[in-house]
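Morning run. Coffee first, then this:
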Amino acid sequence: MNKDKLRIVQLVLTPLLLLIALLYGCANRVAPDGGPYDVTPPRLVSAKPEDKALNVTKKRVVLTFDEYIQIKDISTKVIISPPQLQQPKIMAVGKRVTVALEDDLIPNTTYTIDFTDAIVDNNEGNPLENFSYAFSTGNEIDTMEISGKVLNMRNHEPMQGMLVGIQPDSAGWNAFTDTTLLRMSRTGDKAQFVMRNIKEGKYRVYALKESDGNYRHDMPTEGIAFLDSLITTTCMASTRQDTLWVDSLTIDTIKTVPYTRYLPDDLILMYYEPQTPRRYISKRERPDSMQIKLTFNALPIGGIKVEAINPEDSISKEEKKSTPPIYDLLQEKHEAVAFFTDPRWKHLNQFVVSYQSVDSLNLPTIVSDTLKLNLPKPPKKETKEAKEEEKEKKKESKLTIRIEHKGDGGINDSILFHTSLPIDTTAFKAFELYNANDSILKPLPIDSIWMLPDRSTSGMIKARLQYNTSYELYVDSTKFIDLYGHHLAETAVDAFKTQAKEEFAQLTINITGVKGPYIGELLSTDDKPIRTIATDQSKILFADLKPQKYGFRLIIDRNANGQWDPGSYRDSIQPEQVYYMPKILEVMKNWKVTENFAPLTTPIDQQKPKEMIKNKPKATQRKDRNKEREEELKKRRSGTQEQGGMNPMGGMGGLGGMLPTGSPF
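And here it is:
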């Protein structure tokens, strides 16, 4: 073949081979994935009787949807107003939901069946949010609506599945505790509620975490939320933006649509769990002959009082008063330990424990429980080894001490000590602090030592430390004595070192717009307190911080007791207000960061950073599946291009070597 003919063949074959290569590169690689996930909720297509029908006499309702459905958590999510004395029969079959009411219908009344988000499609579980159906047994139907959210006051978590209800202004303040709520709804996945078909008027609004199913707050342990002021229902003409989507990522059209706006539509109810006024002993122990340990459901306000019952009256009343027990109260464990100071008590086994609780009318009262607590039983069989072991134990001192450091090695870390038996201030002289940077220990002053509130076995030490320095804290065994006269078995030594100043960060929060006293809580990104500062100053300083990300929470400490307090509906007291800084704070080594925080400038339901919220809506999680699918398809397409279309031979994949020699490609 001469050169001219070869050139002609090249000119003919080259485009053909190029076309084949392009088709080959584009046609393979990405396997079909079954299409997008269904994220569309079921749609109501018919109802018998019709939605908002008048003069209804039948007690059976049939709702038909455009796809197969099911109902989740009927007993907790579906609410019927007015409340039903007999449980209605609710069932889903195929595309239909049937509701059969058992109570007689009330004349001239609007009925609402609020499904919240209980109706979901059968395949993907997409919920029909805030769905309700209504009818009237009279000539007119009530049309007013109110809506809002329920948040936990302490941590701003969305409260899902909460009962929300109203009482008319005429019912009075006690209606929430004495009568069933007039009309009700429940919060959905996003803690939002919509209460429809309300008669125009003024109402009190409540949220309730019910425990007995009677739709009223008659149990002191039930968590609640309530608004201080009345709300007035109203409506107005308005417009909103409706977005039409091509798919889960692409917007088709945004339209302005007129609608009737029902008010109020932005209610925020702040939930709290009341302090349990009733106290009781849940566990009783006799660790040894000179102490008893009691565990309560919650420690009684004002502590406890223990008295011995002496059957032989060998201890007079005057002697008992002169030698009362010493108490150690552990709030976090709800424990109260009574250490006997009279050695004659160790032979007794009956005691009277008195503490504050409430009576059947929820009024304060003093409870006195009689307890029989026998001495610990000795081992049944005493071998030689057991006897020797017992002798060795008796030689050991019963008094021990443990030193605890709270912090990351800064100069402001808390130095705590915990003892096995109660001590008083006479034991403080046993503490000695030394600078251990050199071979010779240099004594340092201790600024102060004190026992923690309500504790007889835990205290705190305060001293002026320096950065990047080694220390040793000694507890002299000859000077450290408990209330029974025991010494430590040996001098205790705690060696510790502070880090260099450059290893830490410093964060200052300036509070504006709200008055103190304050409690500032520095939080981890999973919403756990790391540092807590109680102060009446508007500038809160967190020094010696470990470089990382933090959240910040502010409590308005209304009664200045250094802790957050819930509310009291009986006394019309709301829980102490809590605010979140609406962003995550990141501090770096050797940084000094100042943040200004004006809590009232951000709506309460938008304050907590999304990263810190634990009760995430399930609906959001479902929608994210399509985002994951889109990302996966992008990766697949990208991989195909790299293999077939992005190599030096362009779209011809591996066919480049098949071109005739001398080809212009």
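The longest helix spans residues 618-645. Good start to the day.
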